[in-house]
Amino acid sequence: MLVLEKLTKTTINLPQGGQVTAICNKSAEGGSLICRTLMIGLHGGSYDSSYFAAHDSASPFEICDKFRMPMIAIDRPSYGQSTAVAPLEETNETFMKSQARYITETILPAVWSCFKDRLGTVRLIIYGHGIGAAIAAMVASNYSRLVETSAIMYPLDGIILSSVAGKAALSVADEEAPSNVDGAPTGFPLDVKNMVMLNGPGFDFASADMLQLSATLDRPMPSAEFYDITWQWPTYWKSYFADIGVHVLHIIEEGGPMWKGSREMQEAFVIELNRTGSGKGEVTTHLVKHAPHCIELSHAAPEAVLAAIGWAMALERLGKA
């Protein structure tokens, strides 16, 4: 059941006539906060910001509100009414890289400027799922590079990477990439999507109500985004992970059909995150057994979401963020 009726839709104006649409919880509207961390949600492919509001009792929005932590989930560029962004041809930028650049340099400064004074927040944490998690990792990498030049206007202190790995287990990922980006799919038939995202064959990862909600949550996926995560991301993710300097929580499922070798991939992520040594944030991992790709929509949501929000609260309490 969607809890959108408890949330507020908003549109944030961006430079050069752009905009980003988003939803925010009651805590993001003001009042007394327990946590002065602003949580930013980045949804995955074929969903929009409503992904973070879908679970009826343990959505990130619900849990954040229970602890009076402000949360805003944006519609990534090309979703909702958010302005699309074109890759830079001169740098052979991929679709996801262009989103990460735009979110780093344009969207997050605008979001932070819009909410920081009104809420009194002092830090920002990104909660990304799937492709949104991959983009969150790239944003954190971009941020760490910009901090070195003081060309940054917001305090990003941590990222939650939910259900992202280095290579998809989908059979199409082992096939040769289409010669044209436009030849990639723009989503899945709902029965296939439910199997890939929520319930693998023979498993009971999600409720019948959540499966029925799939049509409501479904959004067209840019073909270039599918192309990138399937055939390009596996070739370049390491170049971004080695530069991440903020705290990281990596949550991944074990048992779902989306990623190859979830446990092994988590170990590989940790190796890359720790590669450069000094000046790095802490890396925390959480393996969720018997769960699908869309952990936040599954029976495992309470465990995973509470772990994520609790991690963010601990960073604030211990002064690590």
UniProtKB/TrEMBL annotation:
Pfam families: Abhydrolase_6. It comes from the Eukaryota. InterPro entries: AB_hydrolase_1, AB_hydrolase_fold. SUPFAM superfamilies: alpha/beta-Hydrolases. Gene3D superfamilies: alpha/beta hydrolase. Residues 42-306 form the AB hydrolase-1 domain. This is AB hydrolase-1 domain-containing protein. It comes from Periconia macrospinosa.
